[in-house]
Structures are given as structure tokens and as C-alpha cells.
């Protein structure tokens, strides 16, 4: 019975290099094969690629197994959503046209089986991080994207991959949980809850699997990442749970 909804983010394919990324891609394929029989919808919630920039006629090399598998899933009638992350926001029509995915640029609010979900990659939300919020505006600016596309891929992708490599994940700084009040996405979720009800807030970006009770009725799940955790969330029509693939 295809009734489950799956959520995952932060595969960071391409990082730190080809060989390690390929092993991760194989693992992701095993996971997709594992969920396919029960999957009605799949939400890929950002930073699937460590860097993706789509030119009008050119895409980055690699990741063909994932692309083929997603096309197979959407061809079979499974709805797949692709959220723009802070590493892979430069998508145009390739993912929708070739892979049948629906592109989500910002927050997505959905209701399934009477449960309300607030979904977002998680970047640029909540208090602080003003430097990134400014950068996000530049990165998402159509004129800036048009100018970047004029740079030949060999140079443009070189710069971009160098930039991506500087990120916290590639430098394996371990993420730690301090307290709910210091979790900026929990703070952001609570602010929304003061105005309107959601049963679940699902974010990525934090690189730390979290399942936090916000007020007794609502929860915040962070999807973690796939370099250390292989973490994902599943909604079985009744409840949303955090799970780990190929982990004891
Ligand atoms: Mn990430």
C-alpha cells in the first residue's frame, strides 16, 4: 500500500569528493528502493547536491543514478518535491522537465490526513545569521544568476565548488544540541505557533537529527544529513517519526 510520505535532506552529493559521494549516492539509491513500495510522496528538502548550477543548456556532471531513480519514481506516479537548499538553489526547469519533480522555492504548507505540516529547508529563518540572509538575497537574485551564468562552467563551477567546500559540513565541525531556546528553527517554529497551528515543522539545514516537542501538540523534526546519520522522516498517515537507514 502506497500511503507513506517520506522526507529527507542534506545528501550533499559531490562532497567531499567523487568516491565518497558515489558511496553515499549508492546508499541513497538503496533507501529509495526500500521506500518505493510504500511511498506516495517524497519530499527532498534541500542541499541534495553540495553544489548545483543549471545553465540554459548545461548541467553539472554526475549523480545520474539518483536522477534516473527519481525519474522512475515520478513515472510510476510517486509525487516528488525538490526544495531549493542553500547549496542547490540554482535550478531551472531540468528537474521538473526531466525528473518530473515539483520545485519548491521557499516554505510549503501542506495538510495530509488532517495533520498540518510546515516545510522549509531551514536556511535564513529565525533570529540571527544576518550575513547569510544578505548573501541569500544576492544568490537568489535573477540578475546575479544571469551574470554568473555568463562565466564559463569550467571557471564558474570551479569557484562554486571551492565555495561549497568551505561549508561547515565539509569541514566536519560537529553539530551539537544546546537547548530548545538556542535552536533557532525551534524558536522560529514557536513564533509561527503563536499565530497559527501546525502539527509538524520539518526542516533540514541543521545537519543534526532532532525531534523536539514544541508545546505538547506540535513537534519540530530536523532531517539531519546523510554523511553521518542517514536520517529521514516518515509520515504513515497517523504520526511523523524520525528514522535512520542502515544504522543499528
Ligand atoms: Mn546542508
UniProtKB/TrEMBL annotation:
Short name of one Pfam family: Metallophos
Keywords on record: Cell inner membrane, Cell membrane, Hydrolase, Manganese, Membrane, Metal-binding
Origin: domain of life: Bacteria
Cellular compartments per GO CC: membrane
GO BP, sorted A to Z: lipid A biosynthetic process
Calcineurin-like phosphoesterase domain location: 4-208
Gene3D superfamilies: 3.60.21.10
Keyword Ribosomal protein: no
MF terms in GO: metal ion binding; UDP-2,3-diacylglucosamine hydrolase activity
InterPro entries in the cross-refs: Calcineurin-like_PHP, LpxH-like, Metallo-depent_PP-like
Protein name: Metallophosphoesterase
Native source species: Pedobacter heparinus (strain ATCC 13125 / DSM 2366 / CIP 104194 / JCM 7457 / NBRC 12017 / NCIMB 9290 / NRRL B-14731 / HIM 762-3)
Upper taxonomic lineage: Bacteria, Pseudomonadati, Bacteroidota, Sphingobacteriia, Sphingobacteriales
